[in-house]
Amino acid sequence: MLEEKYYPDRKLAKDARIRNMCEYRELMEWAKEDYEGFWDHWAKEKIEWISPYSKVLDESDAPFYKWFIDGKLNVTQQCIDRHIEIRKNKAAIIFEGDRGDKQIITYLELYRNVNRMANLLRNEFGVQKGDRVVLYMPMIPEAAYAMLACARLGAIHSVVFGGFSAEALRDRIEDAGAKVVITADGAFRKGKPYMLKPVVDEALKNGCESVEKVLVVQRNFADIAWIGARDYSYNELVVSQPDECEAETMDSEDPLFLLYTSGSTGKPKGVQHSQAGYILWAQMTMEWVFDLKENDTFWCTADIGWITGHTYIVYGPLAAGATTVMFEGVPTYPDAGRAWKMVEEYRINQFYTAPTAIRVLHKLGESEPQKYNLSSLRVLGTVGEPIDPPAWKWYYESVGGGRCSIVDTWWQTETGGHMISPLPGATPIKPACATFPLPGIMAEVIEPDGSPVKSGEQGLLCITRPWPSMIRTIWGDPERFAKSYFSDAVKDGRAVYFSGDGAVVDDEGYITITGRVDDVINVSGHRMGTAEIESAIKKHPHVAEVAVVGKPDELKGESIFAYIVLKDTESGLGEEVELNREINDVIAGEIGNIAKADSIVVVPGLPKTRSGKVMRRILRAIAKKEPITQDISTLEDPSIVGKIENALKCSGC
Ligand code: WT7
Questions:
Q1: Protein residue whose Cα sits closest to atom 18 of ligand 1
Q2: I want to staple 71 with a disulfide (CB 3.0 to 4.6 A). Which of 142, 252, 336, 383 is the partner?
Q3: Model confidence, pTM
Q4: Which residue, 514, 131, 103, 96, is CA-closest to 330?
């Protein structure tokens, strides 16, 4: 392919951790030839073990792979204690609130704050190793303390994104069987307070019997209800806690956290991550992919409710001893220069965000970056969805001044850390292309039988060998784990991990992600199962049938398009506006505002095969207003296609 390539800046490459493609290839060859030796080397070099492991990888119970067998460690010692010696007064977290309030937390302060919160959880609430703790938190330092306090005690945290509804929160609390919920009264967004605690109250109203205590961080000091013997103020309890708390000795394979994500059924999956493998790769990718140096200040704009926030706001940067920026607000408030103002003020070296944010910032302030001094930037990252070339170019030229490397990082909740990404000092970059697998990661684009796809053709994006930071299981459902990830492709007689994404490899081996091939859609980098949205919509009393598809969207990547069949087909069009509002209210209540549909069309029926399967491909094509190329004669009622197209025309969608 004769595409433009962007080579790393000379100076950046000269000082980089991986300086050229030869070094990259050497690492990759090493991993290919001696897979266990490769990982053994890094696990010994990077991790501070309490006691060493006896074996690198155990594949005997595939796909339930185990890493660093019998090794003992505590992730908070990796992230905090070991830095105290040489970095005690270094900023661990730089926090900026929505309204511009600032806080710098040094490693020593982080150590104390985490220990105090751990003592609080243990002494006041009886939290122990293995207990589940759900966090429903805003982006404030206490969210990081809470995650790390759990890790200190060996409790398993499960962060639920603050945009999820009470219903969605309840499902996740119940599935995890959480003993404690940590939340905040609320926080600030776009200059105004918003609330979280009332959502927790609502979630705990029915069910959630496992929950004994709720810890409330007072952030916006708004009036909230306090339920006696259940709700406690962090601010009040924490002051009397000792700032030393012994770290629990954890096994490499003990669960570190759960994080719920969407799959192709209606029920979210509790992705379970481990201790050692996860923290190893979080740290290594931090160093390799962002080319992290001792004095760097790193800013990832994700929310801690997503895996990106776990790995690249909290665990990765802290394990690497970096300074991580945490931001409560949104990058467009008070104006489209907010993010660039922060880059200038904190002299940020690596900036990591989602294509959606880049598109919005581009649209709102094409030349905004020029008003600020962004010369500290060295590496720019993107994640969560495919980035389009115009957004990539703007990012590269206007934000990065043509000097920074852009790392288009492909990975997933399940992979724990980056899998495919350019290396800033080495990889010649093709715009909007994730490029090559990282050293040690056997990512391949294959056919279901394991054979490589022809260059330029789409195949299944698979990881053909286990890797340390991989998902260990789905909480409480090992069968679903095996079935969801290890039943679509086989290589050399062995089931391999299939990501759910399609990808294309060009004749130079560059991998471009084409997007999900399953029934998962990606709205503004948020991953949502169509089945989840459908089962929410079905709760509306007038809905008989529903099918949800993704429709390409200029800003969000994809938008949610719902086809509805009403129980009472007599319903006239006049009521549609009202109905749309009601349906979106149902979605907001069941899942959260992030899952609201952009288009809702009432149709007389859905295109189904004779066996009753809804042909989503047809619905996707209709939503995109593309001609139907596929054979519709196999449909139970082929005339339905024309009727649906007409319904769309009438509704103006
Ligand atoms: C899905 C995973 C991993 C952190 C954020 C999302 C899509 C992710 C890229 C990229 C194209 C991407 C994939 C993947 N995705 N990164 N660089 N280019 N697509 O985590 O919620 O688990 O979603 O996000 O479709 O499967 P997630």
A1: 386
A2: 252
A3: 0.96
A4: 96
Which residue's alpha carbon is nearest to atom 10 within ligand 1? 410
pLDDT, tens only, 33-52: 999 999 999 999 999 999 99
DSSP string, 257-280: EEEEE--SSSSPEEEEEESHHHHH
Q: How far apart are CA 310 and CA 307, in angstroms?
A: 5
- The closest-lying atom of ligand 1 relative to the alpha carbon of residue 409 is 17
Q: Does the C-beta of 285 come closer than 6 Å to ligand 1?
A: no
Checking if the pLDDT of 576 tops 80, the result is no
498: in domain: no
266, two tokens = 């209606």
Beta-sheet strands, E only, within 304-435: 323-327, 350-353, 379-383, 405-409
* Phi, psi for residue 169 in degrees, rounded to 5: -65, -45
> Predicted confidence band at 574 (pLDDT cuts at 50, 70, 90)?
low
Give residue 1's pLDDT band: very low, low, confident or very high (50, 70, 90). Answer: very low
Quote the distance between the C-alpha of residue 83 and its chain's center.
Answer: 27
Q: Which residues of 168-195 are buried (b: 16+ CB within 10 A; e: fewer)?
A: bbbbbbbbbebbbbbbbbbbbbeeeeeb
**Number of CB atoms found within 10 A of residue 559's CB:** 20
- Please say if the pLDDT value at position 493 is more than 50: yes
Does 254 map to a domain?
yes
Helix (H, G, I), strand (E, B) or coil at 239: coil
Q: Is 308:290 a contact under the CB 8 Å cutoff?
A: no
The CA-atom distances, in angstroms, between 221 and each of 38, 138, 194, 217, 608 are 51, 14, 11, 9, 53
The atom of ligand 1 lying closest to the CA of 382 is 17
| Residue 84 in tokens | 């105290």
**CATH number of the domain within which 203 lies:** 3.40.50.12780
Inter-residue contact 66 to 470 (CB < 8 Å): no
Ligand 1 closest atom vs CA 386? 11
Domain total in the chain: 2
Segment 302-306 mean pLDDT: 97
- The residue ranges of DSSP E strands in 332-426, in sequence order, are 350-353, 379-383, 405-409
Scanning the structure block, which residue is given the tokens 């069968």?
Answer: 479
How many residues appear in the chain? Answer: 653
Neighbours of 227 (CB within 10 A): 10
DSSP-derived letter for residue 557 is E
Model pLDDT for residues 214-242, shown as the tens digit of each residue:
999 999 999 999 999 999 999 999 999 99
CA of 331 to the centre of ligand 1 (A): 21
Domain boundary pick from 287, 313, 329: 329
pLDDT in tens, 432-466: 999 999 999 999 999 999 999 999 999 999 999 99
State which amino acid sits at residue 301.
T
The tally of CA atoms less than 13 A away on the side-chain side of residue 309 is: 26
Q: For residues 590 and 545, what is the distance between their CA atoms, to the nearest angstrom?
A: 17
What is the rounded CA–CA span in Å between residue 135 and residue 162? 9
Structure tokens at 546: 């529903």
Work out whether the CA dihedral 288, 294, 297, 303 comes out positive or negative: positive
Q: How is residue 163 annotated by DSSP? A: T
The token pair at 227 is 């339920």
Shortest-distance Cα residue to atom 20 of ligand 1 = 412
Full residue range of the structural domain in which residue 577 is found: 524-651
**Residue range 188-195: mean pLDDT, rounded:** 97
Q: Is residue 616 assigned to a domain?
A: yes
Percent of the chain residues topping a pLDDT of 70: 98
How is 572-588 classified by DSSP, letter by letter? -GGGHHHHHHHHHHHHH
Domain-located, residue 317: yes
